[in-house]
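User: If only I could read backbone structure tokens as easily as an amino acid sequence. Underneath my words sits a plain record pairing an amino acid chain with its backbone structure tokens. This is the protein in question:
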Amino acid sequence: MEHQYSDKAFWQKLALYAKSAGREVVEKALCLYYAALRPETPGWAKAVIISVLAYFIAPLDALPDFTPFVGFTDDLGVFAGALAMVAMYIDDDVKTNAAATAERWFGMTQTPEPVSR
């Protein structure tokens, strides 16, 4: 099965599942997303990030996301591995943007817009 990434699909997945996924999953996904936007992030790191985000938005994965209590456990594990691989490209701006977007997301009932850089 081929997984394709798109920004639109990423934001749609977050809009549908943010509350059930929880802030930790959302913030890790956002860190990866914002790191991929950095011009300083090399191609290999962007490839890792895009692959992980494609897995996140895939309709089928190891643990279906709609499974109560464990649906996003696999995503969290994949995010943690990817974050470890690309940690040197997760700078303070990336962390700030991810935290600000997550804060807006969890403090609102509507889908937030990404924090622009």
Notes: Residues 7-21 form the longest helix (15 residues).
